[in-house]
């Protein structure tokens, strides 16, 4: 994240000739610090709640985390306004906008990568591997069979490579998911154990990672000779992830290509010899991470009782009693609990 931010910000300073405003580079890094403090503070509050409750000094930081984050950002905003120079107004606002867009691209999406990791390693490994597989397969199919140009932004991309890479990626994701789904280490959500003071990846696998019997479509029964097949339900989700990696994921690369052409540069940087900068390798990965996070929150993740319980434990005793009475009354109305009898 830091390297990608540095590469994009450096391009902005070079393109807009901001060398005569060296202090503004420090202000850009200050905004990066503020945004990281906000996002990762949210993560600490969610996943380290039990640990935080045991330390009074951290309780203050967590309770007022968003206010502190906003105050830090306002301090940077005021510093920017106070530092405006008459002859450089346009340049300074260019770089102010450039910094915020860079933060949106790098920090926000890299934070989603961390969120995906906490859902289980499989939600990180399958998507990132699918993007890599698609990149390699598209190159191989394009090299041997490519004839029809795909998009003007990338003249070397062909329809043959795009289609061949897509089918290869879906097949790879389906098979790779089968092997990962067999191990708790990859499928269990990462949780913090306050007693051992370490992360644990042990659990009873959810229904997504338990073998189920599926009927094979009639058209495939004649070819495969199978009427049923045992699969993990996650493998069906892997098809959606792989399809996105092969159909929409490459547009992250096209976007990066258009960006570089707009500023007449070949690579974002020269960090990796022969491959360019770190951002050149992560252009599709950031888009993929965002999709995975949206996919999990939309179709996979349900209400989390443990997080609700952590929030209830922070409340005052009177507030906890009010919640208890409200919940009890609700359960009685639904017939789940019997009304208490009083003499």
Automatic annotation (TrEMBL):
The keyword Lipid metabolism is annotated on this UniProt entry: yes
Enzyme superclass (EC): transferase
GO molecular function, one term: phosphatidate cytidylyltransferase activity
Transmembrane segments: 21-40, 60-82, 94-114, 120-146, 158-181, 234-256
A GO-annotated cellular component: endoplasmic reticulum membrane
EC number(s) recorded for this UniProt protein: 2.7.7.41
Predominant place of localization: membrane
Cell compartment(s), UniProt: Membrane
Protein's pathway: Lipid metabolism; Phospholipid metabolism; CDP-diacylglycerol biosynthesis; CDP-diacylglycerol from sn-glycerol 3-phosphate: step 3/3
Name of the protein described by the UniProt record: Phosphatidate cytidylyltransferase
